[in-house]
């Protein structure tokens, strides 16, 4: 597994303050924030103007709003692959100033001209200039901060990009409230809410140009080409090859597209939806802000609240819940309730969004991660264009419908029906994604909720290393030691670096603990004390041996790991297995194997193979039968991670089956593929 990527939420306060203390970067960050604010305010203003120019025609308004979204996204699809290359040929500071001045002039001209043709034309031109401004900015950031602060700089940049959306929505709503009074000073045709927002939008870009003009620290010369500026066709083709090779990644991207589908439907239909609720521009701004406020809430708070849950499970579950609230939103005819539901919808969409991108970082190997992200980003661009274009068109085609009942009547319009359909599709996508990616199919989500409330799911968090971690488990006499040696020999034969270890006894401290725990002269040990001693050995084992090897990219094979404690001290000693598991997860800092091979053999047959018996092996047969049954229970809870093999077979047959299963590990397959390419 590859290194974990941070959740794309706001960084810790001390880190953000540290990077923003750099004067040059602070100025650049201010320009990013005002530029993003201008982009969001421009989106609100241009869609509102498209609504105004329709003169109350419902179908025309929906088509016009769809047109705004299309022309905003199309330049990124067609010009995106080459904009970064062209931008690299110019002085970055001058290019950024040039783009901001032109964006200022274009936004200023939209309300003055006041027709559809120039609205769309100016919007396209604005997006084209933005495509040149953005790569120049991205290439500048690494020159503004030390390498050890680059991650924090990227995080606060993300905050500037998305955190300004609710601010823009608030400003737009306030402008809607004061626009009536402004007509006393300006002609009515130049003082609507959309017009005022566009004037402020234009000024924000003029201010951004002034900030960048003063940034003499921006270096000249070519910048490194960003991954997002690779040729979209090539990114789609190469990314598709890697995506198609993994069931997990396919389910992940399928779900992420579902999340953007639902969010795109809300954004694309928000203006006509609030109009259907007999509300105006102020309500539009609030509803728009509610979506992004919810997203920000989910991105920043979600990873903390759902830290106990498997990312694979919470991704599909959050997407399904978000889509359910989209269905609820479509059925609501009260604006206040709609805003409240939108925030919840956005929050769960944010959880799904941040979890999806984090999982891409966890599940995709480093050498193909860039291409995979480029594939996802390109696919999302295309999908958003389709959703934002199609949703308003469908809404316009459906039109207004009034349903009469005995004592009352209710009116639902095309926007509500379209959001209802989008919500249903989102629920289906979420359920399919959940079922595709769930890592423990025999355990219900409700069981996980209850277990998480007791702090018992901490171990299911995914790997944070570049190595491959395999553990062998099983009862006494099952042949684990023989098979670990055979697997080590096989992996070394295909040029993998392998560390073979065991518990207890893998470290100098472990050897001493092993003597105490297994020596018949030790006598009786309290079951709880025994569990704690094994946990102590495991904590030191992981800290001093296992984790360093994994971080170095090695394959680690361990003869016994935390499942042994769950089986032996939990079921065998009749302690609570969940409590024993919690102790081991704390001791190992939630480090879990990517594959656990359980050598299953009837207890009496395994014990019959032993020539002598240590303290544990000498326990009664019922003790060992409980252990065997607990191993099988553990394996049934997560069949994706556990591989149960009949240990009564010949060692050659067992080894052949283990090699076949290990060869299917995604990272091992990627490693072997990379080595083959290197040899060529």
Please characterize this protein's 3D structure.
- By secondary structure, this protein is mainly alpha-helical.
- It folds into three domains: 1-229, Up-down Bundle (Growth Hormone, Chain: A), CATH 1.20.1250; 231-438, Growth Hormone, Chain: A (Up-down Bundle), CATH 1.20.1250.20; 457-679, P-loop containing nucleotide triphosphate hydrolases (Rossmann fold).
- It has helices spanning 13-20, 23-52, 58-78, 80-87, 92-113, 116-144, 150-182, 193-213, 232-244, 247-276, 281-305, 311-331, 335-363, 366-398, 414-437, 445-453, 480-493, 508-518, 527-551, 562-572, 577-587, 603-608, 621-637, 651-662, 666-679, and strands at residues 401-404, 409-412, 468-474, 498-502, 555-559, 595-600, 642-646.
- It has a five-stranded parallel beta sheet, sandwiched between helices. A two-stranded antiparallel sheet has the order 1-2.
- Helix 2 (23-52) crosses helix 7 (150-182), helix 14 runs antiparallel to helix 15 and helix 18 packs antiparallel against helix 19 (527-551).
């Amino acid at each position: 597994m590859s290194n974990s990527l941070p959740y794309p939420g706001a960084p810790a306060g001390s880190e953000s303050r540290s990077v923003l203390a750099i004067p040059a970067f602070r100025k650049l960050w201010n320009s990013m924030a005002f530029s993003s604010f201008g982009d969001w305010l421009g989106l609100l203003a241009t869609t509102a103007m498209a609504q105004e120019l329709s003169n109350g025609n419902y179908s025309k308004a929906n088509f016009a709003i769809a047109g705004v979204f299309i022309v905003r996204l199309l330049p990124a699809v067609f010009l995106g692959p080459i904009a970064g290359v062209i931008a690299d040929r110019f002085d970055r500071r001058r290019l950024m100033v040039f783009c901001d001045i032109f964006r200022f002039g274009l936004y200023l001209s939209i309300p003055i001209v006041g027709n559809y043709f120039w609205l769309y034309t100016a919007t396209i031109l604005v997006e084209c200039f933005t495509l040149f401004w953005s790569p120049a900015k991205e290439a500048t950031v690494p020159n503004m901060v030390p390498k050890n602060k680059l991650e924090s700089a990227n995080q606060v940049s993300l905050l500037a990009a998305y955190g300004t959306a609710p601010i823009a929505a608030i400003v737009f709503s306030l402008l809607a409230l004061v626009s009536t009074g402004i007509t006393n000073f300006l002609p009515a045709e130049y003082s609507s809410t959309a017009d005022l927002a566009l004037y402020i939008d234009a000024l924000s870009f003029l201010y951004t140009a002034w900030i960048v003009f003063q940034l003499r620290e921006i270096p000249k010369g070519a910048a490194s080409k960003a991954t997002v500026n690779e040729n979209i066709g090539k990114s789609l083709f190469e990314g598709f090859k890697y995506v198609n090779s993994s069931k997990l990644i396919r389910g992940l991207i399928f779900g992420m597209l579902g999340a953007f589908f639902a969010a795109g439907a809300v954004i694309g239909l928000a203006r006509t939806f609030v109009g259907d609720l007999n509300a105006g521009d102020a309500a539009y701004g609030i509803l728009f802000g509610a979506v992004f406020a919810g997203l920000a809430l989910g991105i920043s708070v979600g990873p903390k609240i759902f830290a106990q849950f498997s990312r694979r499970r919470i991704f599909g579950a959050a997407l399904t819940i978000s889509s359910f609230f989209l269905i609820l939103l479509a059925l609501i005819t009260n604006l206040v309730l709609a805003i409240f539901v939108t925030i919840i919808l956005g929050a769960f969409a944010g959880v799904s969004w941040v979890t999806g991108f984090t999982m891409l970082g966890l599940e995709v190997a480093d050498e193909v991660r860039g291409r995979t992200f480029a594939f996802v980003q390109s696919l999302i661009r295309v999908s958003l264009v389709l959703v934002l274009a199609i949703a308003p068109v469908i809404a316009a085609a459906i039109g207004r419908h009034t349903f009469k009942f005995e004592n009352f009547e209710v009116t639902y319009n095309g926007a509500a029906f379209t959001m209802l359909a989008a919500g249903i599709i989102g629920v289906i996508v979420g359920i399919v994604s959940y079922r595709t990616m769930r890592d423990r199919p025999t355990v219900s989500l409700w069981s996980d909720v209850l277990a998480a409330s007791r702090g018992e799911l901490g171990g299911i968090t995914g790997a944070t290393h570049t190595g491959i971690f395999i553990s062998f488990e099983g009862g006494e006499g099952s042949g684990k030691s023989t098979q670990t040696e055979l697997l080590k020999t096989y992996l070394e034969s295909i040029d993998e670096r392998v560390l073979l270890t065991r518990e207890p006894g893998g470290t100098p401290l472990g050897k001493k603990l092993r003597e105490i725990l297994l020596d018949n002269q030790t006598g009786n040990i309290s079951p709880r004390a025994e569990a704690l001693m094994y946990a102590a050995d495991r904590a030191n084992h992981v800290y001093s041996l296992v984790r360093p090897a994994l971080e170095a990219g090695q394959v680690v094979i361990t003869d016994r790991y935390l499942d042994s404690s769950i089986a032996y001290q939990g079921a065998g000693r009749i302690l609570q297995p969940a409590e024993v598991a919690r102790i081991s997860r704390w001791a190992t800092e939630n480090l879990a194997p990517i594959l656990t091979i359980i050598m299953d053999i009837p207890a009496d047959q395994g014990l019959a193979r032993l020539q002598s018996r240590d303290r544990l092996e000498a326990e009664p047969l019922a003790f060992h039968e409980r252990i065997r049954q607990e191993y099988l229970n553990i394996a049934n809870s997560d069949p994706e991670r556990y591989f149960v093999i009949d240990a009564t077979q010949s060692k050659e047959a067992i080894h052949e089956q283990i090699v076949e299963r290990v060869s299917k590990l995604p990272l091992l397959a990627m490693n072997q593929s990379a080595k083959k390419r290197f040899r060529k």
